[in-house]
Specification:
Blueprint: E1 2-5, H1 11-23, E2 27-32, E3 37-42, H2 50-53, E4 61-65, E5 85-87, E6 90-92, E7 98-102, H3 109-122, E8 126-128, H4 145-159, E9 163-166, H5 173-179, E10 182-185, H6 193-199, E11 206-209, H7 216-228, E12 234-238, H8 256-263, E13 268-270, H9 272-276, H10 279-291, E14 296-300, H11 318-334
Parallel strand pairs: 7-8, 7-14, 8-9, 9-10, 10-11, 11-12, 12-13, 13-14
Antiparallel strand pairs: 1-3, 1-4, 2-3, 5-6
Helix pairs in contact: 3-4, 3-11, 6-7, 10-11
Bound molecules: phosphoenolpyruvate (PEP) and manganese (II) ion.
Manganese (II) ion (MN) binds near residues 104, 274, 300, 310 and 311.
């Protein structure tokens, strides 16, 4: 259920409703919109919810609406105008298209600095790079781990970009909170519920990537784990799904963009690097993503992709990334966005 407060409801009235919701053993999430506040009531559905419906009689309440979707807090109804997530001052989900870019993996101080300089110069808004890498094989490069986090943080500071990086283990949360501006959950952990719950108890924004075989409803239920623990700062990322097609690494599901936009208020970005696995397909699919309504892009950029320790075939050279940035501007403008 969501309790929609009147536009002129007072703080006292909001507090009273929250208290009444909690007395009914629901968790009250107060969501402050531009015009009005809504209180999303989440909890185990034990019995008839008509007791919440009684709140309509309480002072300051305009309406009580049942949310029929299983993803109560992620549902578009809760915040029809859409959410904006602030990552170190960069706002994802507004009119501006946000681009996060950088190497698949942090490999050395020099490599991550070169990548940071290149993506900053081309106009990226966030630096993204992996320090802890979820590799299919235990014999592949696993990332520089804690040292990589520091190198990424330093490179971001040097060029003036907030940083995004992937967390795999809930035990590392304190370290990540200290060094990163946004924590990525990768496709392989998209339904790691203990990690998601733990990320719900911090305030740092979470970039949740879609699992290779998660349906959109399952994807939103994964986001719901973070939201229901109290962290409202979630951005979704479509990164391709597994299909019968093997010509590309994954099949980038661009249906997901406008579909998610209808289903949820959370910002949605697209990763055409992992979505295609082939550098020459990254630009056309980036353009298509913006045209489909994405709020941003995640692009892998490496100063020398041929020497990359992971995902070499899909990483863009700096000049190709500049070309991509130039090309997306007119598409963004054509769909009423800015870059
Ligand atoms: C990544 O972003 O570097 C990554 C490992 O992607 P995914 O989790 O989408 O495979
Ligand atoms: Mn990668």
């Amino acid at each position: 259920m969501i309790v929609v407060m009147k536009a002129q409801a007072t703080e006292e009235e909001i507090r009273t409703v929250v208290r009444m919701v909690e007395e009914l053993e629901y968790h009250a999430n107060v969501i402050r919109g531009v015009e009005r506040t809504v209180i999303a009531c989440a909890g185990e559905e034990r019995g008839p919810q008509h007791s919440l419906a009684h709140l309509e009689a309480v002072s300051g309440v305009e309406r009580v609406i049942p949310v029929l979707k299983p993803y109560k807090l992620a549902s578009r109804e809760v915040r029809p105008e859409g959410s904006v997530v602030d990552v170190g001052g960069v706002k994802i989900g507004g009119r501006a298209i946000i681009v996060m870019a950088g190497p698949c993996a942090v490999e050395s101080a020099e490599q991550v600095e070169q990548a940071a300089l290149a993506v900053k110069r081309a106009g990226a808004h966030l630096l993204r790079g992996g320090a802890y890498k979820p590799r299919t094989s235990p014999y592949s490069f696993q990332g520089m781990e804690a040292e990589g986090l520091t190198l990424l943080e330093n490179a971001g500071k040097k060029v003036g970009l907030p940083v995004v990086t992937e967390i795999m283990d809930p035990h590392d949360i304190d370290l990540f909170v200290e060094h990163a501006d946004m924590l990525q959950v990768g496709a392989r952990n998209a339904q790691n519920f203990s990690l998601l719950r733990r990320l719900g108890r911090i305030r740092k924004p979470v970039l949740l990537k879609r699992g290779m075989s998660t349906r959109l409803e399952e994807f939103l239920m994964a986001a719901e784990y973070v939201l229901s623990e109290g962290n409202p700062n979630v951005v979704l990322c479509e990164r391709g799904i597994r299909t019968f097609e093997t010509a590309t690494r994954n099949t980038l599901d661009l249906n997901a963009v406008p579909m998610l936009k209808q289903m949820t208020h959370l910002p949605v970005i697209v990763d055409p690097s992992h979505g295609t696995g082939i550098w020459s397909l990254v630009k056309p699919m980036a353009l298509a993503s913006i045209a489909a309504g994405a709020d941003g892009l995640l692009i892998e950029v490496h100063p020398k992709p041929e020497l990359a320790l992971s995902d070499g075939p899909q990483q863009l050279r700096p000049d190709k990334f500049e070309d991509l940035m130039r090309a997306i501007r007119p598409v963004a403008e054509a769909v009423g966005r800015t870059l």
